[in-house]
Write a structure and sequence with these properties.
Elements: H1 7-22, H2 46-55, H3 60-74, E1 84-87, H4 91-105, E2 115-119, H5 149-156, E3 160-165, H6 169-172, E4 181-182, E5 186-187, H7 203-210, E6 216-221, H8 227-232, E7 236-239, E8 259-264, H9 267-277, E9 310-312, H10 315-318, H11 323-338, E10 342-344, H12 352-357, H13 360-378, H14 390-399, H15 401-404, H16 414-420, H17 426-450, E11 455-459, H18 464-470, E12 474-481, E13 502-508, H19 514-528
Parallel strand pairs: 2-3, 2-6, 9-10, 9-11
Antiparallel strand pairs: 1-3, 4-5, 6-8, 7-8, 7-12, 11-13, 12-13
Helix pairs in contact: 1-2, 3-4, 13-16, 13-17, 14-16, 17-18
Length: 552
Amino acid sequence: MSRRISWFSFFTLILALAWAGYGFKQEVACTPAAASSFPDLYEASIVELQEGLQKGLFTSVDLVKAYFARIEEVNLQGPTLRAVIETNPSALAQAAALDRERQISGPRSALHGIPILLKDNIATLSSDGMNTTAGSFALLGSIVPRDAHVAAKLRAAGAILLGKANLSEWANFRGNVPSGFSGRGGQASSPYVPLGDPSGSSSGSGIGAAIGLAAAALGSETDGSIVSPSSVNNLVGIKPSVGLTSRDGVIPISSHQDTVGPMARSVADAAAILSIIAGQDPRDNFTLAQPSTVPDYTKALNTSALRGARVGVPRKFVALLDDARVATFNASLDTLRAQGATVVDPADFPDSEELLASNNETIVLNTDFKVDVQKYIAGLVKVPTGVKTLADLITFNTAHADEELIPPFWTDQSQFIASENTTVDQAFFDALAADKDLGVTRGIDGALAAFQLDALILPTDIASTPAAIAGFPIVTVPLGFLPADTPLSPAEPTRASGPNMPFGLAFLGTAFSEFKLISLAFAYEQATHTRLKVRAFPAAIPKTQLADVVGK
């Protein structure tokens, strides 16, 4: 099915977002539907799902049943992708309540009754019956005081919190461990390359969104953890500016770099979700720096946005990649030009060499994590394992090595140990200041100003760090695939490369420039429709569709 967004569908998305604010009400008639009238859940957009719900072709209960069945098919059976740690035992009841509400008063928002997966570091009310553990047995059974702010905003918009996605444990901050592994969730793998690296740390969010285990997913990023798994899983991912989405209730790495954003099959879907979850939160003072009014990011969906835009290529970074990715990236520049953009190439960061060599980020993250994770645990209502500090987590892992430090690939916790050995000292504050200078003044903002650019573009696989240390946004869209004759690399335990492995194109900008980046990314997406040029490998595509559950 084409990813092209018709003007009718675009109008429907805007209308759906307006329904809650303008009190739109519509009686939903439950009418039988032919199987051909149901959207294909592998690719179904939020607009298509919302249209079917409004027409009464299916219900949110049907959607939850179908997604649960799809998870069952491929998560621990078949290709055992291990994308989902647990599903929400309250989801069906919540879906039924939202169906009744739709009948009585209409949908709250474009996300009313839409099932979304959440990364397992995003807190959800314990009354739902789900854990929030960052994939670790150390937090199993812990009770959070409330929904994470982003989860609460989804819930208030009528979204269904379908389950918790697997992740690289502790958001890939425990040690030198393969992406996609957690003690609770096991080793996740790619739906595009059998036993392929799913990237991380939002691994399960990427897998789940890629093959329709939910309508979309939330991930979190400190450096690459949304955009990298979005790239490898052929998705759109939005890594928001630090402070656009609240981190309250999100198990942290770094208060200076963490952010939460959507991972979806289209720019339109990601924009709709970002419009819901963005906003100020008194519990996260970083959010108080954002503009007072959250934009409606769906209004950025302009197919002509590249016309007249100036985009720049930090060519010294591109040189770090393999020939296949570089060739595809270079071809994308012709597409951008054909859509009316001026491509400035090269448009290097003023401090490219220093950026590539700097170790300041390591100092910041190691120091932040020790402080921030202890603060998070202290805010929990209950922690059955008794852990309170990072030192306790290290001790817990050693004592439960059979669950956490599993040979031969998953034994390391060197990152934990390095973080435990830090103190908040002058070197930390110097590293923070250096990152601001490297990432902002002589980094992204420096390049944007020097070349008079609207945005920078890079292959996603090497785009994350400048934006990470600056706290700036990235939007990634599907760019291409490794050649079909690419040899399968060894599975150790996952494969670093293989035939048809996807990769993405990243749009980078200054703080809170998401609207501009979304518009540019949407125009590129609509000009190329790259995502459906290659599908997941057959065993990784669930077979259950709405026709299998509606009326059953």
